[in-house]
Amino acid sequence: MKKPGFAMLPGQYIFIKCPKLSNLQWHPFTLTSSPDEDFFSVHIRTVGDWTQALAKACGANSEDEIYMMPSKLPKIAVDGPFGTASIDIFKYQVGMCVAAGIGVTPFASILKSIW
User: How far is it, in rounded angstroms, from Cα 83 to Cα 25?
Assistant: First the structure.
């Protein structure tokens, strides 16, 4: 997503809502883009009902070309960004990040920031 006026730090998270699925449900996702990039991104693992419904609404795993048109994608509301536990990593000369699976997402933006 493009981010005019959107300021973030590595490791922060946002809440995402898809009104097509629910007007009440907000779900947290860690930002995986770097603050230096001109867009922001999240990685979403489809394991629950809501994330599976979101993937289907966005045409994930679909051969249908209609999902290639942005006007056909569902509207997404974003709230945030919010806190980070990893911002202190830039205060030290050496840092060590340990994670596995979808748990690596907080480190994606950190690695992009120092690359």
Answer: 20
